[in-house]
Design brief:
- The chain is about 60% helix and about 5% strand.
- Helix 20 crosses helix 26.
- Strand 3 and strand 4 form a beta hairpin.
- The two termini are about 95 Å apart.
- The strands form two sheets. The protein has an eight-stranded mixed β-sheet with strand order 2-3-4-1-5-7-9-8, with helices on both faces.
- About 0% of the residues have low confidence.
- Among the domains are: about 80 residues, no CATH class; about 350 residues, no CATH class.
- The protein is α/β, with parallel strands linked by helices.
Length: about 725
């Protein structure tokens, strides 16, 4: 009940988060003023990214499975730093020999056949400590091209792994505690380091097969429960190997120490010496997973052959007397079946939780003939005290061809595990689904980008061609103002476009073309004619020109010069916008002609954008020289005392005149009433100071105006 409630709450939470996300996306779309259908494509993008995230996470988990703590070599070097004296020198020499073996393998003639690390098959040998792994390899008497490094170990390798380099294969003889752990934590960590070495240097084909050794005396003397538990421990290691490598490799069970089966040594003494190199066992040709049936077939087949050989040996003339051990051996051999069955059930039995290993074959051998054989027959007869003691010979019985022929013949017997196939299929489909979802979402967003481009272009359609100016200043000013506002609106729409454009930049291109058209229209049909008239007017000015006219022209030139200088200096647009803007209206229509300040300021805004949108800086720079020359000429017309400054402030229209009605109530004006002009008020004084500052900033040298400024300030007081 508790699990059901937790599951319901989990599903409810996921559903709530999903619905909230959907609502949030559509709320964002509507808040931004986008079409509602864009929300579906945004959700598809998020779904695609989510699926892609799951895909990447699976990839990361898979990679993490193959990445362990350290490599064996690093462990060796760390341990060496703690050693001193002669022991360190000896261990250093062993490590050098291990490295030399790997380098020699890489430099060998195998390079002609490809990567030397992959030309020869690699086989892992596992088994309990004392099960005869190393003895079996030694006694196989396999040939090796490495005369001095036939067996090479690292510092850790003496405890963990011995490397045997042969012409037919490379054998990795692992420590017994890897198969049957003694200290689970420490042994597991060392086992993982060893796997890391395999995965790093043999990424394509980590191993081609696994040889499991189990001693015959243990099969005969140990309980079924203990043997089955050992089998399960071996199965765990096999499962780790398959999972980390992603392949199913052939597994061979090699029963070692068969000399401890009563009669084996005597039986083999009667056989031809060459036959001792042949393998004794059976291959699982159909790779059957029915362990019981395979074991029955193997023991029955081998037992039947041994009985047939016994008859042949007894009928040989040179056989001499009948040896009791010779008679007992086939039956004693069949007594392995019970213990072997328990062990193999634990190691190879199918179950729903683990991948079933590929049992390729069952073989029997003896590396060294020593100890006392065990006999079920003698044990039942109570003759246990009359045990035979073997002479300690080192004949390798039934080992040579097992390593040199059976194993290399199965080099290509590798297949991906079910988990690897499922993972590959899942990740491939997941990746494809992610790409499809993201692709559909991108198509939708591409459509949105197109629609938005189209809407922006439609809003600017009326100015596809430059507006026609009629030569009337105020009317043309209004027309250019509409053109300017349309471009600013288009600019704002493009700036507000924070979503990817997916290559659709037509609205930005249209903005650039409209700005270029605006600048050309403003310059050719509006600005240049006015500048030409202005220059002609200034050329005709003299000492009797009204002060108000001089002031208006000085203000216009000073403000244009200051804006041009700021533009060339790369100042921020907002800083430039805060500067006083020029107005041609004030030149054509004085303040007393009823033209409002809004109309006067319009030219400043139009000129400001014209200046910002231009890119021909050389042409702009030429204007400064012309305007500075005109400004200096204007300043010299009225002599030392520039009283035109007062006229400029009085007629500017920004500061009002002060009269008596500003101090008491009343609407009527007295005849001959005295008024205070704007230039002599506090606000007027601020305007004068600002105006003088504009003039000084516009001149190439502020000292040009210093004498006039001093004279004016003395007079103005």
């Amino acid at each position: 009940m508790k699990d059901m409630i937790i599951r319901f709450l989990k599903i409810f939470f996921i559903a709530a988060v999903g619905i909230s996300g959907i609502l949030l996306v559509f709320a964002l779309v509507l808040a931004l003023g986008w079409p509602w259908w864009v929300g579906f494509f945004l959700l598809l993008i998020l779904a695609g990214l989510g699926i892609g995230g799951v895909f990447l996470r699976r990839m990361w988990l898979k990679r993490r499975e193959q990445r362990f703590v350290q490599q064996v070599i690093e462990q060796d070097e760390a341990r060496m730093r703690k050693l001193k004296g002669k022991e360190k020198d000896e261990l250093k020499e062993l490590q050098v020999r291990w490295k030399e073996a790997i380098n020699a393998l890489k430099r060998s003639h195998l390079r002609k056949s490809g990567n030397p690390l992959y030309v020869l098959p690699w086989y892992l040998v596992m088994g309990e400590s004392g099960s005869g792994k190393t003895t079996a390899i030694k006694s196989a008497r396999l040939s090796s091209p490495f005369v001095e490094v036939k067996r090479t170990s690292g510092i850790s390798g003496t405890r963990n792994c011995d490397w045997w380099f042969f012409e037919q294969a490379i054998l990795l003889d692992t420590a017994g505690r890897y198969a049957i752990p003694v200290d689970e934590g420490r042994d597991k960590e060392e086992w993982q380091r060893f796997l890391n070495l395999l995965v790093k240097y043999r990424k394509k084909e980590p191993i081609h097969g696994l040889i499991i050794t189990v001693a015959a005396d243990k099969l005969l003397e140990t309980s079924k429960e203990a043997l089955e538990e050992d089998g399960r421990k071996i199965r765990h290691r096999i499962d780790e190997l398959m999972r980390i490598m992603g392949v199913k490799f052939p597994v061979y069970v090699l029963v070692s120490k068969c000399d401890l089966i009563q009669g084996m040594t005597r039986f083999c003494d009667r056989l031809p010496e060459k036959s001792m190199e042949q393998p004794m066992g059976i291959i699982n040709n159909d790779l059957s997973t029915d362990i019981g049936a395979f074991l029955d077939r193997a023991i029955n087949t081998i037992g039947e052959r041994l009985r047939n050989l016994r008859l042949l040996l007894l009928h040989k003339p040179e056989s001499g007397g009948v040896d009791p051990a010779l008679l007992l051996f086939p039956e004693e051999f069949e007594n392995l079946k019970q213990g072997l069955g328990s062990f193999m059930r634990g190691a190879f039995q199918e179950n729903p939780y683990q991948e079933t290993p590929v049992l390729r074959g069952l073989f029997f051998s003896s590396g060294r003939q020593e100890g006392s054989p065990f006999s079920h027959f003698l044990n039942k007869l109570g003759m246990i005290g009359e045990k035979e003691v073997l002479p300690g010979t080192g004949k390798g019985l039934f080992l040579h061809d097992f390593f040199s022929k059976i194993l290399p013949a199965d080099k290509g017997l590798l297949a991906p595990t079910r988990y690897a196939v499922q993972w590959k299929t899942f990740t491939r489909n997941l990746g494809l689904t992610s790409w499809v979802v993201i692709g559909v979402a991108i198509c939708g967003l591409l459509s949105f980008s197109f629609v938005k481009n189209l809407n922006i272009l439609n809003s600017a359609r009326q100015f596809a061609r430059p507006p026609i100016l009629r030569g009337e200043y105020l009317e043309d000013l209004v027309t250019m103002g509409r053109f300017n506002e349309a471009i600013l609106k288009l600019e704002d729409q493009n700036k507000d476009w924070w979503f990817p454009r997916f290559g659709l930049y037509e609205s930005m291109n249209v903005e650039k073309r409209l700005k270029a058209g605006y600048c050309s229209q403003f310059k050719n049909a509006f600005l240049e004619p006015l500048d030409k008239d202005m220059i002609e007017d200034i050329t005709n000015f003299n000492a009797v020109t009204p002060d108000d006219v001089i002031g208006r022209y000085v203000a216009h030139l000073a403000r244009r010069i200051n804006l041009i200088k700021a533009r060339l200096a790369g100042q921020d647009i907002e800083v430039m916008r805060a500067k006083p803007q020029p107005s041609y209206v004030s030149l054509l229509y004085p303040a007393n002609q009823g033209i409002g300040n809004e109309v006067r300021q319009k030219f400043g805004r139009l000129y400001f954008n014209y200046l910002i949108w231009r890119s021909d800086f050389d042409e702009i720079n030429k204007k400064i020289t012309t305007f500075e020359s005109l400004l200096k000429g204007l300043l010299d017309i009225k002599g030392k005392n520039p009283t035109w400054i007062v006229a400029r402030v009085n007629n500017d229209g920004y500061v009002p005149y002060i009269t008596l009605k500003d101090f008491w109530e009343g609407n009527s004006e007295a005849k001959g009433e005295i008024v205070i002009m704007p230039a002599f008020t506090l606000e007027g004084k601020k305007l004068i100071d600002s105006f003088i500052g504009e003039i000084e900033s516009a001149l190439p040298d502020p000292l040009i105006f210093v004498n006039q400024k001093i004279e004016f300030e003395r007079w103005h007081r």
